[in-house]
Amino acid sequence: MEAFDNNHDVQDIAARMFEALARCFPICSASDEFHYFPQVQSLKEDWSRWDDFSQEAVEEIADKLLAWEEDLARLAKNMSGQDTLIDISMLCQVAQTVREQLTEVRFHETQPTLYLTIACVGLADALDQDPAAWEDRVRGLPAFLDKARMNLVHIPSLFRDLGLEMAGATRSWLSSIRHIRSGLKPVLMALEGFEDHLRRISICDNFLLAPELLERIVCNHMGCAAGMEDVREELEHEIRETQEIMSEEARRLDPGHSWQEIYKSIPLPSLPEDGLVGLYHDAVLELGQHCLEQGLVSTDLFSSCPVRVEPVPFYLSAIRSAAAYSIPPGHPPCGGTFFILDVDDPEKLQEILQPDWRMLTAHETYPGHHLLDASRWNLKKALRRPIEFPLYYEGWACFAEELLSHTGYFKGPADRLLLARRRFWRAVRGRVDLDIQTGMDLFTAACLLEQAGMSKNQAASVVRKYALKPGYQLCYTIGRRRFRDIYERFGRDGPRDFTQKVLPLGEIGFGNLEKVLSK
After folding, report:
1. Residue 503 DSSP one-character state
2. Is 96 exposed, middle or buried (0-12, 13-18, 19+ CB in 10 A)?
3. Of 66, 188, 225, 386, which has the highest C-beta tally within 10 A?
4. How many whole angstroms separate alpha carbon 24 and alpha carbon 42?
């Protein structure tokens, strides 16, 4: 009876925690754009509510989160069931991470792009709703931007500049939809006031976090479960390992030429009439069919949860530097969207469409993000559906690419070179992320990305955006290495068995996953 009561208490805490976060931060919590928040919606949806980052609201929710952490810790002491202990550990990590982000990292006091992203996502969500929902959401936006100005008092110049760039993109987007949606005049006026505030705001040069806080983000918030120096060593090891693989595969393909030369010589596909969207759409279907045949995805999930392919929304172009995937919360899942960078300019197209475009599709859709997210929202255990962790999320998608080598989809030296090059590229990005956060200037960081193969303009752009999410670029390499290690120890029965064991658990973290697979 005691075990049942404890388990019921855990579910009750989860429900209250999720509802409190959804009420205080309805847009951050409902969207997967904000990776520290669980993806939850309030039981009573109120389109007039916007996220509340006022000091009073932040202190109140932080106190609640700390109390729930303490309650969960007490329950764990009297718990013996592994499944419920995993639930507790997941809830504690969510609570602690959100609490520390709000009270110690405090990006809501330094990043204008946070508020602009919330504004755009909030309006975009209401676009597909009935007119009353749109009117409620639009009516509350000017007040939300006014409160944002009160929080943004003294900020890094880099964040100010990124905010002004995104404000311009947001204004253009809002102007483009005025003919289909009413009530935007007050919003545009509020946005203009927000921009004026940014132009006059007190600024500083330094955007770096305190070293001990950065260490906590890397180790706990991202989930690396390792210190900065250990993570840096792993990144360096990955860079050396992938360089050796690429050189070896280059010798197989064309002795006497470097892997960089061979990479550039790999032919790109001809575009169908509907361009990049059509190319990626066909690739998604082919990958999905392959995963279906290999038993990585069930027929029911494949048919009921499709992938749409769309260009990255214009309003997110100021903070998006690459393709992305998104799925709305809901059980059962009804489908997700693969957002791609799309352009009409042939020269820019050459920069966007790379020889590894099939690996990119696998990463974002099957068997990567889409399969992981669709499986998560299809879980029987409701408590785990809204929870995702950056290291697990990005790690699975990176590992999923090479999982296709084990199923025979990617094969031969050219594919092995491309897969190694993606690993190399992510490790360099992770190292640059760490270097930026520990004092390297952005110009030098951009040069490192350029030396690794990125164009000069793109490198200069993305390093600035990396600064908005300290530690996130580590998740690709470190997460892949964690999954690879677990697969080597517990994947002896092959991709199908491994996938069918891992995905029905939810994003439980690597320590918990190892315990489950060890049984």
Report:
1. G
2. middle
3. 386
4. 9
Give yes or no for a contact between 387 and 510, defined as CB atoms under 8 angstroms apart: no
Nearest 10 degrees: Cα torsion 92, 95, 97, 98: 170
Q: Which amino acid is at 433?
A: D
For the CA atoms of 419, 421, 425, 426, what is the dihedral angle to 10 degrees?
Answer: 20
CB atoms within 10 A of CB 94: 24
Strand partners, 336: 307
Ramachandran class of 181: left when φ > 0, alpha when ψ lies in -120 to 50, beta otherwise = beta
- The per-residue pLDDT for range 13-37, each reduced to its tens digit, is 999 999 999 999 999 999 988 999 9
pLDDT digits (tens, 9 = 90+) for 141-182: 999 999 999 999 999 999 999 999 999 989 998 988 888 888
Tell which residue, 102, 213, 85, has the closest CA to residue 151.
Answer: 102
Burial annotation 242-271 (CB, 10 A radius, 16+ → b, else e): beebbeebbeebeeeeebeebbeeeeeeee
Helix 55-77 vs helix 2-24: angle between axes, to the nearest 10 degrees? 170
Q: Reduced to 3 states, what is the DSSP secondary structure of residue 155?
A: strand
* CB 301 within 8 Å of CB 314: no
Beta-carbon count within 10 A of 44 CB: 8
